[in-house]
Predict the 3D structure of the following.
Amino acid sequence: MPLVESAPWSSILAMSASKATTSTALSTEDLSFAYGQRVAVDGVSFAVAPGEIVGLLGPNGAGKSTTIKMLIGLLPPRSGRIELLGMEMPRQRSEIQARIGVVFEEKNLYLNLSGVENLTFFARLHGVRDLDVNGLLERVGLQGRGRDRVSGYSKGMRQRLTVARALVNRPDVLFLDEPTDGLDPVSARAIRAIVREEAERGAAVLLTTHDMYEADQLSDRVAFINDGRILALDTPERLKLQHGQRSVRIRRQVGDEIEETVVPLTEDAAERLRELVTAEGLLTMHTEEATLEDVFVDFAGRRLE
């Protein structure tokens, strides 16, 4: 898919048809923001459909978190347009915020309250009166810990409670800013499962991450962002196939040594592969594709870290 930073607004909206829907839950047009003289977001345009997970993939300082803050109404854009659920941000901020859920990278829980108290307080703010607190705690793996003060929770437990809080109002759009950063594998896996469940329910999900694996595992589409600009937007698979280099790695026993050979899958690779496969001592052979990070480096000229 072509670069999207200069694409017309109508084509940006059309790109969200990767799911079986023509509607969009979230769309931006030429969105920009600056901290003083430093431009943090520079002409960003994209859209997210209901039930779709879109990942903003880029290094720290690329503009991911600033973009999220504008979308949820914490920062006013310098220029551009934001539409969520048919409403304009920031003009209809209150109505929009009632229908979205947000997980910040920095936790903002009430540490002296229990898990149950955090959730019920947030439910009251949203006017939710039929919240199944215990069911929600069980869903994020905090059953039996709801009456404990959050100050005694581990980092992973606080993150899971933050996710639970974002789901109190059954949001139509879910924003996740580095949702599994620094978490242990078990906690990270649990949060990814919840994100998929929310998308299956029909929520539009926008997540920011510098974690290539996470973006590849979760995202229906990925937007590469660097220096405040979107460099590419497509499915992880197409990005890797169109812009990465596939290869075959072959391991052979040659005397007392193990020899590894990597053959790029180019048009003239067939004869070389035939030689290696028919030679004595073949141990293993498997194909390799480019990672999202490899493709990002190709676009941005630097790594994600």
About this structure: Residues 245-288 form one domain. The longest strand covers residues 38-48. DSSP finds eleven helices and 13 strands in the chain. The first helix runs from residue 9 to 14.
